[in-house]
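Q: Structure for this?
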Amino acid sequence: MPQLEIVDLKASYGPHTVLERINLSVEKGEIVSLIGPSGSGKSTLLRVLTGLLPPEHGTVRLNGKLVNYADKAAVHALRSEIAIVFQQYNLFQNMTVLDNVMITPTRIKGWPRKQVEEHAIGLLTRVGLGHRLKAYPDELSGGQQQRVAIARALALKPNVLFLDEVTAALDPELVTEVLDTVRALALEGITMFIVSHEMSFVREVSSKVVFMAGGHVIESGSPQQLFDAPQEARTREFVGKILRH
Amino acid sequence: MFASSQAEIAQLFSFYNLLLLLEGFAATLVLSALGCFAGFLAGFVVAIVRVTHSRAMAPLRALAFAYCFLFRRIPFLVTLMLVFFASQSSKANLSTFAVASLSVCLIASAYLGEIIRSGLESVHGNQWEAAQTMNFSTFETLRFVIVPQAWRVVVPPTFGFFVMFIKDTALASQIGVMELTSAGKVLTNKGFSSWLVYGTVLALYFVMSYPLSRLGKRLEKKLAATRNR
């Protein structure tokens, strides 16, 4: 049974259809990367899956269980099993690094504070920020903030982790530190859904790559298949352009 | 009427006149404090209602919007008269002080509701989204994330409004409330020099509003230094 199964998903912003006929299945521990040109619907797909944009039709199953996005309780249940890391980090600006990581487990999930704190410090140390626990987000570099955001997501112990262009807002020299963090996660077997423009990274860590364009899934397959022998003309064009640069 | 200005000053600050001025001062202080505190609390509720998004809250949201829209556009004096005549025609028989209190609350909550709403909306939408994906309720998002960040934006105009509002309470004299300006009027009617009386009234208004504006400045500085914290 796939951990996440998407069937015939469609979503729109008002009259503008942004996703159509999306079919995907993700096995447990798989790392699926969404690639494609800007505006192809990659980030929108993550927004739909995390309940930020309700789908127009289609079904999503998490661990075999149908997610009804119109039902608040169902979305609540879904969100307790997933976590998302945003392109702009979206850290809570009024909280320290440690509080950012601890707030949801302690205040929302009601987990015991002492254990949460130990876990949070462990996670922050793992992403290389054990020495900045008391710092506020605006005192950190973009790369550091993104690593805090990753630690915050991991503190929720998610079954599926969504990463939405986590390096897109970073200076080139900060990209590596974030990618190294994600690379380490990939080795731990956590199911991940990654939207990225870092093609060499995608190729290295993904178990499956999905190429999207114009709100559709054009092609999907292993990184080797997609990058070395793309079947569709649109994929070939995209991959060709990337390889030229 | 008075032999010399010294005699006039001594007369003006006689026990009963001082009592009258103090009574006026206290009424102005109570009206202002009521407007500021009750207005802030009610304004906070109005602002929270206005930043909700759920469909179920739509009627309340429309009501809160209409309330702010209306009461921010009516002069304080007109509100005062409206409440005064409404109280008379409904036979509620409210005292003039109660009418003035109700009016200051109506006006202050509309203004402060708008100030607080703009503060809440100044917090970036991505903060709401992050909280939403982590299962924060609207109340939890406001409590833990939005309100602590909105203070920075809310404080300066709020204190500006408080200071302005203290002066506006002088209009309560129009329906016969014995507040500071009314006390001044009574004293000039008694024959004291307008310069002397209103100079004293001015000093008393200053005594009330200056500490408030200083406090506002201090808070503003403190919040500016810590930015979003």
